[in-house]
Amino acid sequence: MLEVRGLHKRYGDLVAVQEVSFTVRPGEAVGLLGPNGAGKTTTVSMIAGLVTPDAGEVRIEGGVVRGETDPLKRKMGLVPQDLALHDLLSARDNLALFGALYGMRGAELRRAMDAALDLVGLADRAKDRVSAFSGGMKRRLNMAGALLHDPAILLLDEPTVGVDPQSRNAIFDNLEELKRRGKTLVYTTHYMEEAERLCDRIVIVDHGKVIANDSLEAVRRLVPGVNVIEIEIENPGQGAEWYGGLRALDGVDSAEWQGSLLRVTMRDLTETSPGVLEWLRAHGYRCLHLASQRADLETVFLTLTGRSVRNL
Amino acid sequence: MSFTAFSALVRRDLRLFFMDRRAVIMSFVAPILIASFFGYVFGGASADQPASRIAVAAIDQDRSAISKHVLAALGADKALEVKSADLEAARAAVRGGKTTVAVVIPAGFGDGAAKSLFRGEDKLRGGDKPEMQLLYDPSHNAELAMVRGILTQHVMEAVSSEAFSGGASGAGPGLSMSFSMPYTVREEAVTARQGVKYNSMAHSFAGMSVQFILFMGIDAGVMVLLLRRSGVWSRMRAAPISRFTIIGSRAASSAIVAMMILCVVFGFARVVFGVRIEGSFAGFAGVCIAFAIMTAAFGLLVAVLGKTPEAARGIAILATLLLVMLGGSWVPTFLFPQWLQSASFAVPTRWAVDGLDATIWRGASFTAALGPIAAMLGFAVLFGAIALWRFRWDGPA
Known about the structure:
The structure holds 2 protein chains of 2 kinds.
Chain A: E1 2-11, E2 14-24, E3 29-33, H1 40-48, E4 55-60, E5 63-64, E6 76-79, H2 91-100, H3 106-119, H4 135-144, E7 153-157, H5 165-180, E8 184-189, H6 192-198, E9 201-206, E10 209-215, H7 216-220, E11 227-233, E12 252-258, E13 261-266, H8 269-282, E14 287-294, H9 297-305
Parallel strand pairs in A: 3-8, 3-9, 6-7, 7-8
Antiparallel strand pairs in A: 1-2, 1-4, 4-5, 9-10, 11-13, 11-14, 12-13
Helix pairs in contact in A: 2-3, 4-5
Chain B: H1 3-19, H2 21-44, E1 54-60, H3 65-76, E2 80-84, H4 87-95, E3 101-105, H5 109-117, E4 131-136, H6 141-164, E5 184-189, H7 201-229, H8 231-238, H9 243-273, H10 281-305, H11 309-327, H12 338-343, H13 348-360, H14 366-390
Parallel strand pairs in B: 1-2, 1-3, 4-5
Antiparallel strand pairs in B: 3-4
């Protein structure tokens, strides 16, 4: 359906994307994961035709996308990270504009707008100005704007940025519905749980390079047997690396401080976790809560890159 | 009061102020620029700079010693730039704004003036004095008064010199010594046609329309930059449409708004102040359309002036103030020093204001409007080309 071959983009001395290649099959949901600045947005921008790659090509159904007016671009719908909405216009007027960009008008456009508004649950607010919408509603309308011309492929660039959990759930319900309808999704995010919920396949990007590209299960198997313990600390230390000494302990693969939780990965829970707790006790840190879980995508990323995706 | 907090807040305000390029430009550069400009125009320049001279056409139908004397004196006057012409050419030059005053010395003026000089006022009747005609540009009233005064001085010198040297018949020393003004003046404001009165609102509305439409053009350009920051730009670029469609539509909408502003402003001027299109309506429409297109291209140019909307707006406002000053929107260009009058043709606003003036009250034909139209379209092409050349198309989703 969508084939990305050797995309490369440089801005001055900064290489934003290096030889990025991956394929998305029809109906598949692919998560493009990586921290901020990893090259996800640049990659999506090149796929969508917003940025001209220095090298590489994008193929849709076997045809290379060439130029601004290539009809192959009709097969893609973009949900940009920044809201693509005019605040002073109504939801319906916004959609009418975006439909017109794809040559839609008349009854065809009205039907498409009705369907898109219905899908995102904004049919009853169609005539309201966007400026009156909540952040979550704007995000849903932003997505509706990409659906009007019924694209086979949806490029979603961090579509849940800045929304509350309830709106995020609503957006995910919409995306799961689109997936059921057979849409091909390319979903960029740095929220690992989002990718785990939606995606069949994961492409992990770091420093502009693809470092993993496989099914969700296969990617998880990249770190077999890895366990994570999350510890809530009552009195965390000062400084960026107050917990750095944990990494020197036998059996500890990584240690990261995320918000109020200390995440420590290890192969052998029985052998290593007592040493971790002892190190904390010896350094005067009090544990309020401790939980253990198997490796998730966050752990995979941490293991592959040595860094946490959220702390970057 | 906490001095620490107070000084921190002051430092913050100063930092934020100086980080806002637009505020800095408008607060420091704009007043210096505008004050310098007005100071220069109204006589603040160095004494070495030649003052602007009033363009005068001289039509000598008399060809007497007195008329030659008068014309020679006018020609030698540093305040005037006198050119000989025939009556029709002079009238056309005044109507076209190229000449401020045309001085018509009729046949028999010299003889009649010399005789009239020695007649007492009590003996005079209207028809006894020769009549000199002044055709003037009604938008240059101040200059007319100056020319009138200079003319009176030179005519009196010439007539008295000729009379006392005995050159004129029927006059001379020993006759009645009752002196009077030896001539009368008939002044005619040259407008589109005979009987059409000059309406000073015409120039005022032309100048202000030009200024505020350019401000609209700035907003249009800044809007492009703001759009570029938003997802709307990404969505437009992702659609299978050309960059010409994207940027051309922006330019077209700016031009349409500019046309609407012109229609509303001149509609108001027509209804409330009686400003009529005395020249070619097609010429007026052509000037308006050309200016609207030029404004649209100017808006696109604004979009490449700065990296951010804020920076672009600051630079563009300064550029616009310069354009409207040099174009004659605030102060008529005839008040400028001569070199600045010539230089002002290098800005599109001069052509816009002149084109509107010409077609509204000077009665210019469509052919006469073609010059301003061509000039503004030329600027539009130049601005548009620079904008397309410098525009940064690539941007992230």
